[in-house]
Structures are given as structure tokens and as C-alpha cells.
Amino acid sequence: MSVLTRRRGPAVDPAAVRAAVDAVVDPELGRPLGELGAVDEVTHGRGGRVLVRVATPTHDVAPELVAAVRAAAEGAGAGRVAVETTPMTPRRRAELAERLAAAAAPRPGGPAPRVYAVASGKGGVGKSTVTANLATALAASGQRVGLIDADVWGYSVPQLFGVRRHPVVLGEKMQPVRAHGVALMSTGFFVDEDDPVIWRGPMLHKALQQFVTDVAWGPLDVLLVDLPPGTGDATLSVLELLPDAALLAVTTPQTAARVVARRVVRMATESGAPLAGVVENMAGTVCVSCGETSAVFGSGGGELLADEAGTTLLGRVPLDVPLREAGDRGVPVVLDAPGAPSARELTRVAATLPARRRSLVGRALPLTVCAPRT
Ligand SMILES: Nc1ncnc2c1ncn2[C@@H]1O[C@H](COP(=O)(O)OP(=O)(O)OP(=O)(O)O)[C@@H](O)[C@H]1O
């Protein structure tokens, strides 16, 4: 593939162009191209023309990669930029897998990630939206964040992050798909949007296990797991696969939602999972014309659930239009409209999530050792 653009500019400094292209972060692998050894050639011609050849792990090249390389070369003074991409040979792919493994290797004695399994009793209470925004807010604060979409049938992470592509496979490991600073894995990356996912029991468990152990997560500070609603097989599998996960319950203020959420909380505590807290979502809305707050879904459900479970109400996220619009656009509201009431509360909740739990001290989770093998 080759893409040309024209631009007039000052005299080109080849070293500056090379440095700028090397610094471009591969959108799929999350590392600079120079570090990946992926920049094969930067050739300078007459009139500021520059040809950049980049080797990619697959034929399926992310359009953002080409755009970012071109923008970087132009930003460094190149006048007319052609970007050519070529798929790597199997040998180069194997070398790349080794390079990534070395970069992602956990430091001995380094801290284990905090793991939060985000659950709700009923569907549609905003669990996935809350998870996506907490993950994005944590990543924006400088933490290395992973998100597993364990809602294998009703996955919504690809839509919420505005990304839909197959994960790159290097060696025996899948690379997480990256968007808005978060490393993601979802069934939605493997199937067409309209295809029904009909996994049950052992297949479901196996898929979730692969998301934990066969993905090259690299070192993470936080891992969030978006559970399906209710007390089904997937929730049990996640609690079994990630025994260090703390349960974060999402409910609306409504009694019906709280009562069902109570069952999930009970199931988690019976299986030994500690509670990270409760987030009440859709907690009232402010009328844009009259300024009055109305409690569309009632009030008090989050506080009551937290009291009943002996945990903390971490926050009350209002129902607002910017959050819904951002979700539809594929950009979490904490980035899309950080000043919106919902975004402010979600950012605050992310900053107050319980920092570290007793059971994690000195323990390494399996996902910290999932560097790619060749
Ligand atoms: N605070 C909010 N304000 C406005 N809209 C919201 C809010 N929270 C969620 N929504 C909207 O509600 C709908 C359901 O949200 P979401 O998909 O996150 O729920 P869920 O609990 O994960 O559902 P399920 O478990 O069934 O997948 C989405 O359209 C989302 O944009």
C-alpha cells in the first residue's frame, strides 16, 4: 500500500524525519515503531519528497498507522510523503514477538495489577459504560490499564471504544487491541457485528481463559473485567480464573435493579471475592431548560445496596446526554466531554477505587506472565 500527500515546507532534516517516524506509536502493538524495528527505510528525494517504508505484522494495516507516519514525517518538515507498508516475513514476526516479550516481561517483585470485576444484576444499567469510562480515566491518569469484555454474548466494548479489528497474533499470543489508552480484549473483535455468539459452558470458560492467559497483556497496573449481567456461567468463570478480582457492583437507584444486583454481590462473596464498592448509575438527571433534578429511576438504591453488602458507595453517576452521545460515537465521555456531570463523577470514582487489596500483596496474577512466546 502506498499513500502520497503534497506539502510545501522548509528544508528537510533527514535525522529529524527519521526520529519522528521512529517515535510513532504502533496503534495495534502500543510501542514506538523504532523500538519495534519496523521502519525499514526513510528515503529523501528532490523537493522535500520522502518515502517511508514500514513493515507490519499482518496484511491488515490499521489506517491510523499510515496517517500517523505521514503526519509525523510532515511535522518534521517533509514536503511530499509516501508511506509504503509491507507485511513482515514469518522470521521477522518471530523476532518481533521476542522483542515484545522482552519489553513486556514483568519485573521480578513488581506489584501485581489490581483487578476489578464489574457486575450488575440486570442488563442495561450502564455497567459496560461505567467500566469503559473507569478504564479510560485510569489510563488518562497514567496507569497501564487492561479491559476484558467478559460479556461474550452481549459484548459492547468495541462500540464503546470505537474500535473493531482482529487482534494481531504473534507467536502463540494475541496482542490486545488498543484504543483511548486502554488494552482491550472482546469477543466482538473475532466475529461480525451481526453474528450471534452461542458459546456455553466449557467453550465459554475456555474463551475467557484465553482472554486471561493467551493475551500478551504485558505489565498492567489495573485490569477491569466487564461481566455479563446476572449470576451466569461467565461470572463464575471469571471469579474462578481471576481469584484476586474484587467485585464492583453497578446498579441504578431503582429497587428492582438493586434487588437483582444483591444476588450477584452475594454470589461473589460466597465464592470468596472481596467487594470493591458500589457505583450507582443513572442517579437523577438535571433538566436543561428548568434546572430541576428529577430522579427518573428513583433514589437511594446504590446506598442501600452498599449498606446491605457492607461496602462503600463509590459514586453516583447522573443520567446525561453527553454520556450517551459519547458512547454512540465510540469515545468514552471522560475524554469526549470531560466537563459533563457524568464524566466528572466517573473520573472521580476512578481516582477513588480502592488502591490495593490484602490478597494481592506479593502475589503475581497469571496475566502478568503472559508475554508472547515464539
Ligand atoms: N449515566 C448515563 N446517562 C445516559 N445514558 C446512559 C448512562 N449510563 C448508560 N447509559 C446508556 O444506557 C445504555 C445501556 O448502557 P450499557 O450498555 O453500558 O449497559 P449494561 O449494563 O452494560 O447493559 P448489558 O449488561 O445489557 O450489556 C447505553 O445506551 C448507554 O449509553
From TrEMBL:
<dbReference type="InterPro" id="IPR034904">
    <property type="entry name" value="FSCA_dom_sf"/>
</dbReference>
<dbReference type="GO" id="GO:0051539">
    <property type="term" value="F:4 iron, 4 sulfur cluster binding"/>
</dbReference>
<feature type="domain" description="MIP18 family-like">
    <location>
        <begin position="15"/>
        <end position="84"/>
    </location>
</feature>
<dbReference type="GO" id="GO:0046872">
    <property type="term" value="F:metal ion binding"/>
</dbReference>
<comment type="function">
    <text>Binds and transfers iron-sulfur (Fe-S) clusters to target apoproteins. Can hydrolyze ATP.</text>
</comment>
<dbReference type="InterPro" id="IPR000808">
    <property type="entry name" value="Mrp-like_CS"/>
</dbReference>
<keyword id="KW-0067">ATP-binding</keyword>
<dbReference type="GO" id="GO:0016887">
    <property type="term" value="F:ATP hydrolysis activity"/>
</dbReference>
<dbReference type="Pfam" id="PF10609">
    <property type="entry name" value="ParA"/>
</dbReference>
<keyword id="KW-0378">Hydrolase</keyword>
<dbReference type="GO" id="GO:0140663">
    <property type="term" value="F:ATP-dependent FeS chaperone activity"/>
</dbReference>
<dbReference type="GO" id="GO:0005524">
    <property type="term" value="F:ATP binding"/>
</dbReference>
<feature type="binding site">
    <location>
        <begin position="121"/>
        <end position="128"/>
    </location>
    <ligand>
        <name>ATP</name>
    </ligand>
</feature>
<dbReference type="GO" id="GO:0016226">
    <property type="term" value="P:iron-sulfur cluster assembly"/>
</dbReference>
<dbReference type="InterPro" id="IPR002744">
    <property type="entry name" value="MIP18-like"/>
</dbReference>
<dbReference type="Pfam" id="PF01883">
    <property type="entry name" value="FeS_assembly_P"/>
</dbReference>
<dbReference type="InterPro" id="IPR044304">
    <property type="entry name" value="NUBPL-like"/>
</dbReference>
<comment type="similarity">
    <text>In the N-terminal section; belongs to the MIP18 family.</text>
</comment>
<keyword id="KW-0479">Metal-binding</keyword>
<keyword id="KW-0411">Iron-sulfur</keyword>
<comment type="similarity">
    <text>Belongs to the Mrp/NBP35 ATP-binding proteins family.</text>
</comment>
<dbReference type="InterPro" id="IPR019591">
    <property type="entry name" value="Mrp/NBP35_ATP-bd"/>
</dbReference>
<protein>
    <recommendedName>
        <fullName>Iron-sulfur cluster carrier protein</fullName>
    </recommendedName>
</protein>
<comment type="subunit">
    <text>Homodimer.</text>
</comment>
<dbReference type="InterPro" id="IPR027417">
    <property type="entry name" value="P-loop_NTPase"/>
</dbReference>
<keyword id="KW-0408">Iron</keyword>
<dbReference type="InterPro" id="IPR033756">
    <property type="entry name" value="YlxH/NBP35"/>
</dbReference>
<keyword id="KW-0547">Nucleotide-binding</keyword>
